[in-house]
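Regression test case RT-17, inverse folding.

Input:
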């Protein structure tokens, strides 16, 4: 009986991919990978919003913001608990006009709970 042909084995040289070596995470994020570029852009936008909210929200409310995401024309602010969600919602209602003046692309602000 003849030997079986080896196909798609891990040791097959033809199937190996060439590995890139990166010096740092910054080099990895600066690469041309679309998913990583999108993630780094989202992280930069989140830091921009966190800085803006830190200036305009009360410090105790800002301490309980667990995330900020800009989705199309909606700014979604995540808080650590339902109680802080209500407090942040009222604080955002007071500064919503200033937020829309500073960022005209934002039409709506939504506050949600995301324990972090």
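Golden output:
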């Amino acid at each position: 009986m003849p030997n079986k042909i080896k196909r798609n084995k891990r040791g097959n040289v033809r199937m190996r991919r060439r590995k890139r070596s990166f010096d740092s995470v910054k080099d990895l994020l600066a690469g041309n990978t679309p998913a990583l570029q999108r993630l780094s852009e989202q992280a930069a936008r989140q830091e921009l919003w966190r800085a803006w909210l830190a200036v305009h929200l009360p410090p105790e409310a800002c301490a309980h913001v667990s995330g900020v995401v800009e989705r199309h024309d909606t700014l979604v602010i995540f808080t650590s608990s339902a109680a802080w969600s209500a407090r942040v919602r009222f604080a955002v209602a007071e500064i919503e006009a200033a937020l829309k003046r500073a960022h005209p692309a934002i039409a709506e602000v939504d506050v949600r709970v995301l324990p972090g």
